[in-house]
Design a protein that fits this description.
Helix content is 50%, strand content 10%. The protein contains twelve helices and seven strands. The protein starts with 13 loop residues before the first helix and ends with a helix. It has 443 residues and is α+β, with helices and mostly antiparallel strands.
Length: 443
């Protein structure tokens, strides 16, 4: 390895020489005469890169372009006098100054408020993820609170108690119901034993005359009340009629008004108040005859609405009768049905005629004979009958009398209105007969 040395030497004369050179340069600069823009012209002797010489035309264009960027063309004013302000203060300037002054005062007040010292933040202690950590207060005493816990096991004791209570309640209720029925049964047995000595007669139609005079001896020989009537076995066949229903009404006044209106038009009208307030405008024995009769009603007045309704009479095998001769009830009903069939048939025939014709003497004589028989039976049945039965008999007799009277007048002076009157009377008779049988029939 070679070792080399470098030696630096400073010449003491070098400082004097450098100061002299600087003095000469300063003296030379002081001898330079400054020139203005108008006194000199820069001539660039550069040549174009392509070697072409600058022509006078190119030189003039260059001078025009350079003149645009001269210092005197940019800003010749060296002093700025500011904007012009009026000596008179305007309202807008005064308001603006007030706002600025108030804003500066507010900012000073905000700056002068002492800074609030925030309490040092305490570190947050995080509990371990595997532990259930809760803060403990050493200054609070732990109160003893009773702990309520529900058992998760099945409450067999409560279930058994509920079932036993339900069974006991059911048994008690059953004994209560049985005691009520047993009390009613004992009462009925005692009442039957007490009423045994009284008179009770159940006989057929053939043996009723002989058995009605026999009575059983006993402690009581008092007369029978209407409710304790004699039960008699009878045979009344079932029958059915087809009525022409005009409507069902909710008030008696409305039904009565419609019935009166139909009567003024010369048509049949009858009202049934037993079940619902119903107004009928005709009837027939069969449905075909009822259809033909409905056409006649609508020909008389097209505004009348007519619906066909069946009125059924079930067969009767026993009646409860308190009057004399209960065996005459089936005969009385049969004579009435005979008159109804005869008169209704005649009304259908003569209402279908274009010009009404008079009745024959034979037809009228048959009506008179049946009517007389019915009146005789009605008088016999009314003797000793109850008030309700007597009222029904009276309605039936009155309605049949009106029907026969209409037929008598029609024989003298044939008229369609008289046939409709006979229809009205027959419907009233059938309604009264239904009420009569309902009151005496034994189920």
């Amino acid at each position: 390895m070679k070792k080399a040395r470098i030696t630096y030497r400073f010449d003491p004369k070098e400082g004097t020489e450098s100061s002299r050179r600087a003095a000469r340069v300063h003296d030379q600069e002081e001898n330079v005469i400054p020139l203005y823009q108008e006194e000199f012209k820069v001539i660039d002797s550069k040549t174009e890169r392509n070697g072409r010489e600058i022509t006078p035309f190119d030189q003039s264009e260059r001078e025009q372009v350079e003149s645009l960027f001269e210092s005197h063309a940019l800003n010749t004013f060296t002093t700025d006098f500011g904007n012009w302000n009026s000596s008179f203060e305007t309202e807008g300037e005064r308001v603006e100054r007030i706002i600025r002054d108030s804003q500066s005062v507010r900012e000073q007040q905000v700056d002068t408020q002492p800074p609030q010292i925030q309490p040092p933040a305490q570190p947050i202690e995080k509990p371990d993820e595997w532990s259930n950590w809760t803060p403990k207060d050493p200054y609070r005493e732990i109160d003893s609170v009773p702990r309520i816990a529900k058992s998760s096991s099945t409450p067999w004791f409560r279930i058994a108690t509920s079932v036993a209570g339900a069974v006991v309640t059911g048994i008690a209720f059953g004994f209560f119901v049985l005691s009520m029925f047993s009390t009613d049964r004992d009462t009925n047995v005692d009442a039957g034993a007490t009423a045994a000595p009284n008179k009770i007669t159940v006989s057929s139609a053939n043996s009723q005359a002989s058995s009605s005079t026999k009575t059983q001896t006993g402690t009581n020989n008092a007369a029978l009340p209407a409710s304790a009537a004699v039960v008699t076995a009878v045979q009344i066949p079932a029958k059915s009629y087809t009525f022409l229903q005009n409507g069902v009404f909710s008030s008696l006044q409305g039904a009565q008004a419609v019935q009166d209106s139909l009567g003024k038009k010369g048509l049949a009208a009858a009202m049934d108040t037993s079940d619902k307030l119903t107004v009928f405008v005709g009837f027939a024995k069969t449905r075909d005859d009822a259809t033909a009769l409905r056409q006649k009603v609508q020909e008389s007045d097209k505004t009348i609405e007519v619906f066909m309704k069946n009125v059924d009479f079930p067969a009767v095998t026993g009646i409860r009768w308190s009057g004399t001769k209960p065996e005459s009830v089936p005969t009385f009903i049969a004579e009435g049905d005979k008159l109804v069939n005869s008169i209704s048939g005649l009304t259908l025939v003569h209402l279908a005629e274009t010009k009404p014709t008079a009745l024959t003497d034979a037809s009228m004589q048959a009506i008179r004979t049946s009517h007389q028989t019915m009146i005789t039976l009605s008088t016999t049945l009314a003797d000793g009958a109850g008030d309700d039965v007597r009222a029904s008999l009276q309605k039936m007799t009155t309605a049949m009398n009106r029907a026969v009277q209409s037929m008598e007048e029609y024989k003298k002076t044939p008229s369609t209105s008289l046939m409709w009157q006979a229809q009205s009377a027959m419907m009233q008779y059938i309604i009264a007969q239904k009420e009569f049988l309902k009151g005496i029939t034994v189920a």
